[in-house]
Amino acid sequence: MLSNAGLQLQALLNSSVFLACVFSWLCAQFIKTVIKLFSGNVHSLSELFELLFWGTGSMPSSHSSITSCLCTSIAYHSGIDSDIFILSLVFYLVTIRDAVGVRRANGRQARRLNEIGQILKEKGLYDDFKKLKEVNGHSPMEAFVGSLLGFFIGIAFCVL
């Protein structure tokens, strides 16, 4: 006999919404990895695995894919007039805005500050320079393609 936690985990793993979202994220990460691999931007096996599971930025946006899939799946199961769909739609819009706007701008600023810091360090003007983390955001096209991927995966999981 399964415990209450076991039953809840089993219900989660049987949820078409959850499974669609996981599959959407995995597909986006796989496509992103294949694109980077064929374009010569992967230089080691560890870099390949990191990109496959945790890579950010690039085509397609896994953030857009998973939130679009969530929104689509909830729309199918609960209807577009439900509160949970409205919540998922707002979550999707905030995620896209963050990926295309805020994270992209932060990444560009960090890259430029790292360039300036390196120049100052090389000239001996700033010895204690430590690189900032360069967070990769998305271009509008990367977010759009990720959204399409998530939409179609969400439809497929709901209909099939």
Helix and strand topology:
Blueprint (H helix, E strand, L loop, with lengths): L3 H10 L2 H23 L6 H10 L7 H17 L4 H40 L17 H20 L1
Helix pairs in contact: 2-3, 2-4, 2-6, 4-5, 4-6
Description:
This protein has 6 helices and no strands. The chain is 75% helix and 0% strand. It has a domain at 13-97 and 139-159. The chain has 160 residues and is an all-alpha fold.
State which percent range the strand residues make up.
under 5%
Q: What oligomeric state best describes the polypeptide chains here?
A: single chain
Let me know the average pLDDT.
Answer: 84
| Tally of DSSP β-strands | 0
Q: What's the overall geometry?
A: elongated
Summarize the biggest pleated sheet.
Answer: none
SSE string, helices as H and strands as E: HHHHHH
Q: How much helical structure, as a percent, in the residues?
A: over 70%
Residue ranges: pLDDT <50 for 5 or more in a row?
none
State the end-to-end distance: 30 Å
Number of helices: 6
Tell me the Rg in angstroms: 20 Å
Secondary-structure-derived class: mainly alpha
